[in-house]
Amino acid sequence: MVFGQGFLKDCWYFAALSSELVSGKLQRYVLLDEPVLLGRDLNDGVYAMRDICPHRAAPLSAGQMIKDEHGACIVQCPYHGWTFNTAGTCTKIPSLTSDQAMDASKIRVRNYAVTEQQGLVWVYVTSDPRRTPEPDHAPPTLPGVVGGKPLIVERMDFDSHIDHAVVGLMDPAHGPYVHQQWWWRSSKKQLEKSKAFAPTEYGFAMVRHAPSKNSRAYRILGGAPATEITFRLPGVRYEHIVIGERQILGLTCLTPIDAGTTRITQIFWSDHSIFRAITPFFRLGAKAFLKQDGDMVNLQNEGLKYDPSLLWIDDADTQAKWYQQLKREWVQSRADKRAFVNPVKPSTLKWTS
């Protein structure tokens, strides 16, 4: 795949928090340039289908969810009352008369496989929209204290293709220049760093280590923090911090809305009393981080609109190069109809930040 173009398919994308889906409410999302009706039916089941009625293209999300005479949950189009079950099959065309033979069940709306776990909703997007979604792998299972109500949820839409958003997320060298809060770190106190990495399921991890000495935020937590940072295709990054018996999990999900827009969702859980106490201040910091990254994306776009060649250097850009290798292997393994083989090898990377 060309960097900055297209989307990975046949994989799971984060769509919403479980708490955001209300029984019977029809909610419109846009994922990978596709309108998606994502909802929770009247029996509490989660479903997803293309948010376009095949009759006259009205958004199904503008209709309503009802139950048919058999008690099944169906979505009714607001335009002509056509109904569809949550698998996307048309169940009724009200305008048909008794002598008009037409099999409504042959009319289908694209549907998507959905998994709800640990308080998160994941949607599986197939490469062939005509194929019934049959995921051959599960969405990520996150470590630690997830599943309960998050302490922090922050979102921002970046004017960026997901590829640029991902490499910006994993870039270890921009922090001292883009994020210069007094409580985080300063560009005047940079250190040479050496971190061990290892392949993981569909990605890689910076293996568990003590935070860098110039990372002030970790010191606020007390004790001896140890952190592990994991990236997984197509755009999931999580940091699991352990301080004694207490934990913090920070999850960042990148969901492409279209070719030029990526939604960044940051979620934090913790059972650490100090972290919970400083949550209001940390929330402000997380929001500031997102804004600073968003401002840098806008600045970067001034150069990207001229379609320049990009320069990748070792070791600071090695994670970005791994991401591109992972993407290529994902696409090739699907084309060859074989198992994915992780191209990342155990390595130690060095950089200054």
What's this model, at a glance?
The chain has 353 residues and is of the alpha+beta class. The longest helix has 26 residues, at 279-304.
Can you walk through the features of this model?
- This protein is of the alpha+beta class and 353 residues long.
- It is built from six helices and 18 strands.
- It has helices at 162-170, 175-178, 216-219, 273-277, 279-304, 318-336, and strands spanning 11-17, 26-31, 34-40, 46-50, 64-67, 73-76, 83-85, 90-92, 111-117, 120-125, 152-158, 192-200, 203-209, 226-232, 236-243, 246-258, 261-270, 347-352.
- The strands form three sheets. Strands 11-17-16-15-14-13-12-18 form an eight-stranded antiparallel beta sheet. A six-stranded antiparallel beta sheet has the order 1-10-9-4-3-2, with no helix packed on it.
- The longest helix has 26 residues, at 279-304.
- The model has no long low-confidence stretch (mean pLDDT 92).
